[in-house]
Design a protein that fits this description.
56% of the residues lie in helices and 12% in strands. By secondary structure, it is α+β, with helices and mostly antiparallel strands. A hairpin with a 2-residue loop joins strand 1 and strand 2.
Length: 200
């Protein structure tokens, strides 16, 4: 299966795609920042991070950015069951890592407690980048809401235009017939107008 591409049909779509690219840059910057701290001679102990940022295109009109936990693949029954639950029908060799998505909940931001298991030297870095991601999630959600509202307005507007144009065509035909009849009986026009009042 090929990689899913985001649609870019409108200005809102284009901006949404740019937000996706920004999320990718934030994820890369997080890894670079963590790496600097881990490799720095000023760091007094061996550090590691088991949390990563995952940016995924879910559908042509939707992407998500979440935090994932690195899960070590071991020979224990518990490890194998966890791996099976995360990667169905996929074999992960012992000693490798797979990722487990951390649920965010209904809000736009992960709570700071999500990062409590990280070493204190890198915990603040993760919280900083999550604050940036939360801003992106909020505006991305607004973008999609506006896109949905735009689609609804266009559909409703098209339906109303069809209805109005059809009504005007009927009235034009009726007026032409009234003119041909010498305008002696205006009841067809009156009846049509009265029916229109009932539809409003």
């Amino acid at each position: 299966m090929g990689q899913i591409e985001l649609v870019r049909e409108t200005a809102l779509d284009e901006q949404y795609a740019q937000m996706y690219q920004a999320a990718m840059l934030i994820a890369a910057a997080y890894l670079a920042s963590i790496s600097v701290v881990i490799r720095s001679p000023a760091t007094e102990r061996k550090l590691h991070t088991h949390l990563l940022i995952s940016v995924r295109v879910r559908t042509p009109s939707s992407w998500t950015v979440t935090w994932c936990k690195k899960v070590s693949v071991q020979d224990t029954g518990k490890s194998q069951r966890e791996v099976a639950g995360l990667r169905k029908n996929a074999k992960a060799p012992r000693g490798r890592y797979i990722t487990k998505e951390i649920p965010k909940g209904p809000r736009d931001r992960y709570p700071n407690s999500t990062f409590s298991a990280l070493p204190v030297e890198v915990r603040g870095i993760a919280i900083h980048y999550e604050a940036l991601l939360a801003k992106l999630r909020r505006v991305a959600k607004g973008n999609r809401a506006m896109k949905k509202a735009e689609a609804y307005c266009l559909e409703r507007g098209s339906k109303t235009l069809v209805e109005c144009n059809a009504t005007v065509s009927v009235i034009k035909q009726m007026l032409s017939e009234l003119e041909s009849s010498g305008l002696r009986d205006l009841r067809p026009l009156t009846d049509l107008i009265n029916r229109g009042k009932g539809d409003t």
